[in-house]
Design goal:
By secondary structure, the protein is α+β, with helices and mostly antiparallel strands. Strands 2-3-5-6-1-11 form a six-stranded mixed sheet. Strands 4-10-7 form a three-stranded antiparallel sheet. A two-stranded antiparallel sheet has the order 8-9. A hairpin with a 5-residue loop joins strand 8 and strand 9. The longest helix has 21 residues. It is globular.
Length: 218
């Protein structure tokens, strides 16, 4: 198993406010089409969907001392082509695409999954080397815990070494017994196959705590 633990931090009011401002600007000024664009009642869902992604990026930047995003998804001048952040190691440059999601808890099991739409990987202009998984848990209104779960190589997924590809229309069963249907061809990568996240240099952060990933329910 590649991933045995993860860490949590609390989202500050300032971090949340900053992310909300980026999202509202993107909705007001640069309405690039997304899955909620044609939904008459989708404005609030669109805001929450974009906030999840943007807040994850803001938290990643702050935790790892990188430059914060200045645009949110939907801004015409804010498209990053799957390259949210860059980092260097052994003289090589790598690009990271932060994938954020909301969950009802900040406790995770090895069989929980990161969903990655196949079309996002296949586009010729995508610059991603690694996907980094961040989960957001709203423990009370506007009070979030961000969980840093780790990263996975795009190439290993495309080469069939990690993850399972499910075709559009496939019905899946969630851990709580609920079901959903994939609208696009999608890879599922188990949390046990995501590499443990690198620890921030500064661990004196609000709510910083480390946790073990739990075994599946029997």
């Amino acid at each position: 198993m590649r991933n045995e633990n993860y860490f949590d931090v609390e989202v500050s009011p300032e971090q949340l406010s900053y992310a909300k401002e980026l999202v509202q600007y993107s909705i007001d000024n640069h309405p690039v089409s997304d899955i909620f664009s044609n939904d008459p009642g989708g404005k609030q869902r669109q805001f929450e969907f974009r906030l999840t992604g943007t807040l994850g990026e803001v938290m990643f930047a702050d935790i790892y001392a990188m430059q914060r995003p200045s645009r949110s998804f939907g801004a015409i001048d804010g498209q990053d082509y799957g390259q949210d952040f860059n980092f260097s190691e052994s003289g090589k440059e790598y690009s990271i695409d932060v994938k954020s999601m909301r969950r009802k808890s900040n406790k995770f099991r090895t069989n929980y999954v990161l969903n990655l739409p196949k079309y996002q990987m296949d586009r010729d202009f995508v610059r991603t080397d690694f996907y980094f998984c961040v989960s957001l848990f709203e423990k009370s209104p506007n009070t979030f815990i961000a969980s840093f779960l780790g990263y996975v190589s795009k190439l290993e997924i495309q080469d069939g070494k990690l993850g399972i590809l499910y075709k559009s229309g496939t019905k899946r069963i969630k851990d709580d017994g609920g079901t959903f249907i994939f609208q696009r061809d999608t890879y599922e990568v188990d949390f046990k196959d995501i590499t443990t996240p690198f620890k921030p240099r500064n661990t004196n952060l609000p709510g910083f705590s480390e946790h073990k990933i739990l075994n599946p329910y029997k």
